[in-house]
Design a protein that fits this description.
This protein is an alpha/beta fold and 310 residues long. It contains seven helices and twelve strands. The chain has two domains: 142 residues, 2-Layer Sandwich (Nucleotidyltransferase, domain 5), CATH 3.30.420; 133 residues, Nucleotidyltransferase, domain 5 (2-Layer Sandwich), CATH 3.30.420.40. It starts with 12 loop residues before the first strand and ends in a 6-residue tail after the last helix. Bound molecules: zinc ion. Zinc ion (ZN) binds next to loops. Zinc ion binds next to loops.
Length: 310
């Protein structure tokens, strides 16, 4: 357990966070103050094992972080991973559309092994052989980051939607992430909003993400997309009663107020129970593509230091 668990006055390195995607890995080094020390992105070369890419990125980030902080290298307290897929209660990947090769692999042991070989000669190892590695779904990581240091800072009842090619989602209620019994909580993209609608690769027809997303953008007008989004959000709001909804993802960021503005106008009409001040705020994510990596790091810090305050 690290000596200093409070962020106050401690600018030292607390965690390395990695957001692992189908084609790239984003990494970040986060201080005990929750500040980002440095970030780095790497594309996944088809030939190199992904675990090795992750270990190289993590050790590179750790060395850079110590240099930036003008501190001598020392073992990194913890590592957080954000993975696109479904995780069981022990953090093992049970399903992933983008990382099929990682399903069933003991990611933490393999990464720990690879990290332990990254010691620089003559210097103390950057990662101990039992460095805590905490794995979480990538959308959940983005939500953690936005709720702690981003657009929903300080909020406890938050829904996050990432609009990319499809829709990713995550929920926090009373400050706790919702995983569900099987890790499927937050799969908003595959809620059916249109019976017998567009065929989805998941096997259903009329999934939400075929009406609101980068894919939908090719066949749904922006006006209709706002209507579909308002409808989907109203259903989520009635089910979970959040105080704020954060919209991120590449497509979401590109659309910005062009999409959020009209949806904001439509929501009150779909939420008759809600007074004007009760209708949840709808805001754009503000950590951009780093949200997943930052959230992965923060999630790891929270695991090793549950009383952590920054
Ligand atoms: Zn679907």
């Amino acid at each position: 357990m690290p000596e200093m668990l409070s962020g106050a006055g401690n600018k030292g390195l607390a965690a390395i966070g990695l957001d692992v995607g189908g084609t790239k890995v984003l990494g970040t080094a986060v201080a005990w103050t929750a500040e980002v020390i440095c970030t780095e992105k790497t594309t996944l070369p088809p030939s190199q094992p992904i675990i090795e890419v992750m270990a190289n990125l993590a050790s590179g980030l750790a060395s850079r972080a110590f240099r930036n902080l003008h501190l001598p290298p020392s073992p990194v307290p913890c590592v957080g991973l954000g993975i696109p897929g479904t995780l069981d209660r022990d953090g093992n990947l049970t399903f992933s559309a983008n990382l099929k090769g990682m399903v069933g692999v003991d990611i933490r042991s393999r990464l720990r092994e690879s990290l332990s070989t990254k010691a620089l000669s003559g210097l103390p190892a950057l990662f101990s052989s039992d460095v805590p590695i905490v794995v979480e779904n990538d959308a959940n990581c983005a939500l953690i980051a936005e709720a702690l240091v981003g657009a929903a800072r300080g909020r406890k009842d938050v829904i996050l939607l990432t609009l990319g090619t499809g829709i990713g989602g995550a929920m926090m209620l009373g400050g706790k992430l919702l995983h569900g019994a099987h890790g499927y909580a937050g799969e908003f993209g595959h809620m059916v909003v249109m019976p017998d609608g567009f065929q989805c690769k998941c096997g259903r027809k009329g999934c939400f993400e075929h009406y609101v997303s980068g894919t939908a953008n090719r066949r749904v007008s922006h006006e209709d997309m706002a209507k579909w989004m308002a409808l989907g959000l109203a259903n989520l709001i009635l089910a979970f009663d959040p105080e704020i909804i954060v919209v991120g993802g590449g497509f979401g960021a590109g659309m910005g107020e062009k999409l959020l503005g009209p949806v904001r106008k439509l929501l009150p009409g779909l939420l008759r129970e809600y007074s004007e001040t009760q209708v949840p705020r709808l805001v754009a994510a503000n950590l951009g593509e780093d949200a997943g990596a930052v959230g992965a790091a923060i999630n790891a810090i929270q695991h090793i230091a549950p009383q952590w305050d920054y």
